[in-house]
Amino acid sequence: MITLTPRPEARAARRRWAPPPSTRFDWTMTVLCLVFVGGVYLDAWAHTHGFSDKTFFTPWHAILYSTYVVVALFLLATMTRNVARGADWRRALPPGYGLCMVGVGLWVVGGPTDLLWHQVMGIEASFDALLSPPHLVLTVGLGLIFTGPLRAAWRRAVPPRGLVEQLPMLLSLSYLLSLLTFAVYFAHPLAYLWAKASRAPAPHETGQAELGCVGTLLTAVFFMGVILIALRRQPLPVGAVTVIVGLNSVGMGFLYGLGDGAYPFPQVAGFVVGCLIADGLLAVLRPGPQRPLAAHLFSIGTPIAITGCYFVSLLMTGGIWWSVHLWTGTALTTGGVGWLLSYLALSPIPSDERWRP
After folding, report:
1. CA 343 → CA 229, 240, 347, distances in Å?
2. With contact defined as beta carbons under 8 Å apart, do 105 and 63 qualify?
3. CA–CA dist 302, 310 (Å, integer)
4. Nearest 5°: CA angle at 111, between 108 and 116?
């Protein structure tokens, strides 16, 4: 009996093969991640409204884990097909998506651990759920999965240009921002509308204004940090801020709303209008590492525009109980936050940088 074995050169050639970048794969992952984000926010909505605080087995968890299964099966199917075509399993996904499988694996560990944690430690309530160890594992996994299209854009030899080509990357950044704001919902200005006149605290209550101010600054840190991550690598198209921050604000408004459950349309609209103004600054200033002054001005103006329009929306719909000194000063201080972050974005990337995500 004669056994034919591939030559060493043939085996080496098969191992060297790797799937090329794929726009279709980018868009498929972007859409699937959008559905996954929706599952995460729907489950969080159920928690914030008291529908999921008694048991692990709820319709909301079923929807959440179903969206995870869809994403995981798509990645596994692609990986299996490419391995069958000769790719090494470590490079069986298009460039930039390898860490997505690490995120899938973290959910394989974190999901059962979360169930066991609930059985032993009880069901978390309020924002305790955000900080339980199993949920932190799941959060890291989400971050690795959601940023797949972002890493894929960074790995391309020719970076995508224009709003349409960069849209998977921009949506990936919006998913990342949504994960960050979800993790600190108790401080987000769209969560409790701290400054709204109808939410003025009783005389014996203290710290409401301070928490609202800090929450507004923290929100500015998150969205400016995410925007500048992308801006450091390549110019952003007009519309990028609205895609990244505007979509996130729509989700945050759905997730928490007002105390009576109403959707905060005016305040979400204020965020979106501020994003449109920021995109105007993007068009005029054309910021980037090669235009440091423009980048600094953009980083100052963007958070001021977004938070300023948010406070104006409160003024137009019931008023603000904060003093004019506090709310105008808070909006202007977010500009200082953006200005400081812009120095990180402008730090040069070494030409011989070895690590690529």
Report:
1. 12, 20, 6
2. no
3. 12
4. 125
- How confident is the model at residue 254, as a pLDDT? 82
The beta strand positions in 120-277, using DSSP E, are none
pLDDT digits (tens, 9 = 90+) for 305-317: 999 999 999 999 9
Residue closest to 41 by CA, chosen among 208, 245, 252: 252
**Nearest partner of 137 among 98, 104, 168, 101, judged by Cα:** 104
Handedness of CA 156, 161, 162, 164 (dihedral sign): negative
Name the DSSP letter for residue 322.
S
Domain boundaries, the chain: 14-158, 166-349
| Beta-carbon count within 10 A of 246 CB | 23
CB–CB of 217/326 below 8 Å? no
pLDDT along the chain (357 residues), means of 10: 53 66 93 92 74 62 86 94 87 92 89 66 58 79 95 88 92 96 86 84 77 93 94 90 96 69 86 97 92 94 97 93 94 96 76 47
Q: What's the CA gap between 295 and 299, in Å, rounded?
A: 6
Rounded Cα gap, residues 348 and 243, in angstroms:
26
Do residues 195 and 268 make contact, with C-beta atoms less than 8 angstroms apart?
no
CA 101 to chain centroid, in Å, comes to 18
Distance CA 230, CA 237 (A): 11
Report yes or no on whether pTM surpasses 0.90.
no
Q: Which residue has the tokens 């030409």?
A: 351
- The residue whose two tokens read 């910021």 is 287
Burial class (CB in 10 A: 0-12, 13-18, 19+), 338: buried
- CA distances (Å), 94 to each of 16, 21, 326, in order? 14, 5, 49
Q: Residue holding tokens 């003093």? A: 323
How many CB atoms sit inside 10 A of residue 107's CB? 22
| pLDDT tens by residue, 23-53 | 999 999 999 999 999 888 887 777 766 665 5
- pLDDT of 171: 97
Report how far residue 158's alpha carbon sits from residue 155's, in angstroms, rounded to the nearest whole number: 9
Count each helix (H run) and each strand (E run) in the chain, helices first.
15, 0
